[in-house]
Fold each of these.
Amino acid sequence: MLKAVTFLKESTQGGMLSWSAQSQAVVQFGLRCHEVEALALENGIFPARYQRNRNMISIEEQLKLFRSRVAVIGCGGLGGYVIEELARIGVGHIVAIDPDIFEEHNLNRQILSTPATLGKAKVEAAVDRVAEINPAVTVTPIKDYFCLANGSEQLAGAMVAVDALDSIPYRLELAEFCTVAGIPMVHGAIGGWYGHVATQLPGDTTVQSIYRHWVAGKGIEQQLGNPAFTPAVVASLEVAEACKILLGKGELLRDRKLSIDLLEMEVHEISYPKVPPVELVVAA
Amino acid sequence: MLITLKLFATFRNGRFKVAEQELPEGTDVRAVVLSLGLTEEEIGIVMLNGRHGELDSKLSDHDTLSLFPLVGGG
């Protein structure tokens, strides 16, 4: 290990470790790609692939992201972009959850879908895509539905849960699970030209408030479908929120929801003030 | 009483973005929703004077009511 660190230090140029040196270390020292990345970051060496992160994300923060585990629930329109961005920014462990396989109607927007992946499990496509774009990132695929009953197994160790589901009841189960398990949840939903994002920390009930009028069925996405750009916009906002939670910086979309209308290009913020605790009336 | 009614996203189709409405005293949000030809199932968010409202909230003179459709896709 010491030899590997020495090799990495000697290979550093201008404070950066090139991908070819990282790859060479894998072969030369019989290490896994994520082990080399951990060694580099722990020893203050910045992998060159993250150099454009550097003025926003310090090396300590890059290490924090690398040691983070984020669960992405749903690997379709939103989830595909969420996984892509988490892997590129350098989040070390992604848990990808989805029971479905790709179908032709996914091709207009789901970034993990291609004609070649039709019929393939969405979570398997996520594993392959991340291996291609950032081999230092580990993806744990779970080809199953998320529900309250299997949440503790699927989301074990997750520091953030990113909601990329396409069903309101499952979303409400996720919100309930995250509250019980104490996991911050980034909520996103889309339909046609429209979407919204909100962040819920343990103890908050924003997602439950957002859907408090829900009775049954789907939203406007059922009539409108979803185009290519709406999931990309909403997923990107979700990833920004997830990264801020992991790094403990910035202002979160907490107790408020950003509603986005891409047709009229309007953004509305809706506040969800906390329900104050019921005061006990003590008889005098 | 006079209220300001704001519609968002698909609720604007064939309707309006914003309109003033003269309503009988004691009208609730649900009655306005139904008068627009919408169903309760289609309602995502009810905002009354910038705060989260309910379908059975009673409206008052000079209230601003905003209605957003349900969005749940991924």
Amino acid sequence: MSEQKLTEHLAGNGPAKDELQVAQDWMREGRNLAIATVVETWGSAPRPVGSHLVVDEEGNFEGSVSGGCVEGAVISEAAEVIESGEPRMLEFGVADETAWRVGLSCGGKIRVYVERLG
Amino acid sequence: MEPNSLVKLNEARRERQAAILLSEIGKGRDRVIREGDTVAGPLGEAVAKAFRSGKSGMFELDGQEFFLNVQVPAPRIVVIGAVHISQALAPMAKIAGYDIEIIDPRTAFATPERFEGVALRADWPEEAMGDGYLDAYSALVAVTHDPKIDDYPLIQALKSNCFYVGALGSRKTHAKRVERLKEAGISDERIARISAPIGLDIGAASPQEIAVAVLADIIQAFRKRELSAAEQAKGAA
């Protein structure tokens, strides 16, 4: 995620995206995809429970589960989930240096559920 | 996620219907539950609670984890009357997380200068509100004092399953209103849904204080509403 996009995102005034509709559109196009969902948060997590990240088999993505710091990891896990069809539960702390630099809250922890569509 | 579940969930969202995607974690199984659908047992209680709070979350039952992905439309307040009370109510509603729109055919009242940044329509409610305009996530507040303007939207609200109906006016004014609504064929049971005098009884005196009372009344109606199938059916009948 670019710095500008991330800033917009944090300010809550980024372009309105509808990840679940994007997922449906991509499905109609015949793309294989995974949907990642924030299912639990502890502390000051940057994205609320229910936030989605939609990833296709080529690594294209829409949405966000953390405001930028763990998206890379989720996208690579998603590739394996699309391949195997086995859902996965991921856990992340978001208190890394990158998170601090762009002003994300530290000390939070999130659980992200990744599953294949279909 | 089942492709069919995704399609159903998006359909509900487009229709401004509350829905929950219930996923069995680790199993890849899920289903879509619409508000008012019956779900038995402890899971049913979790579902009802999730609809009321509007919050997604995990739920564990017999060692199996479930995720309830709650999709509810934003609650909105439709105000008939671009009056003082509405001027105070608009910013407060926004702060509380409610969408608000104001309808008043009197162009001297419904001016953008008096309602900066607020969705405002200088039309008769008959023109502004089509069929199905008020849904289960809508509140109707009629504050013009003028039956020519207030009565139509009140009747529409009482026929709908919107979660709140309030009308400004003294007990005497309201008694006359009740007579007119009866003549229009609205049942006593429905008429009893109207919050009148409008707002929680906090002794509000100024228009600004009345706006606080109205907003509190709306919040109470929204957060304490019944979501059982029976109530839904009653509302939609």
